[in-house]
Amino acid sequence: MSDRPADTMTPLANYLWWLLPEFLKKKDRADSLVARFCEVWGSTLEAARSTLVEIVPLQVVETATGAWLDQLARGRQIFRSDGESDESLRTRVLSAHEIKRKAGTIPGMENGLAAIGYGVEVEEPFHGTDIWSRFLVHVYTWDGLVADQGFFHSAVRLLKPAHTRALIEPHLLLATWDDWEFGAPPNDLDIGQLDDWQPTP
Questions:
Q1: In the 8-state DSSP scheme, what is residue 95?
Q2: pLDDT at 4 (0 to 100)
Q3: DSSP string covering 154-167, please?
């Protein structure tokens, strides 16, 4: 708890009265014109303090919600997808710096994908050959928070070295990896073409 009178005295009119020099407090507070000014200014300052207390959490990614979080995301060139939750968007916004800072290296890819909830291992099985620029992304775990699989592929494209191409190989059950349900007809988009190299932009 703070020891500053402004934090411990409520309402703020009491604090303003306390600040006054003694010669302005010669009259009884109930009869003082200066005390009335303190009441008016104090109520205005109380309203301002309440507004600040409400606004500050909305200006920070960790606590912002709704349209406030969308604004902070746009500042990092990230946009909410249809139906995306605040928690998913927050995770992507917080990971944006990590993804952009460490792009282009295998540890950077693994750390960047971990930041959005994917446990992966990246390997270059053809390093030293004429197709060395291809690498393999093994997906072993997923926390389920960033639910749009497209964001995973987008992160891989951002993290990979510019001259390389990626093959993504999930080691998760399809029902876990995406929205496919057991017994439903196969969907090429969900299953993916794991034997083909993924095209790069």
A1: H
A2: 62
A3: HHHHHHS-TT-EEE
Residues forming a β-bridge with 139: 120, 170
Give CA–CA dist 132/151, Å, rounded.
26
Yes or no: say if 164 and 189 are a contact pair by the CB < 8 Å rule. no
Residue 181's pLDDT band, with cuts at 50, 70 and 90, is: low
In whole angstroms, what is the distance from residue 181 CA to residue 164 CA?
A: 33
Give the β-pairing of 165-170 and 134-142.
parallel
Q: Is 86 helix (H, G, I), strand (E, B) or coil?
A: helix
**Helix (H/G/I), strand (E/B), else coil: 68:** helix
Q: How far apart are CA 173 and CA 140, in angstroms?
A: 10
Q: Using one digit for the tens of pLDDT, what is the confidence trace for 112-134?
A: 888 888 899 888 877 777 766 77
Provide the token pair at 107: 């540890």
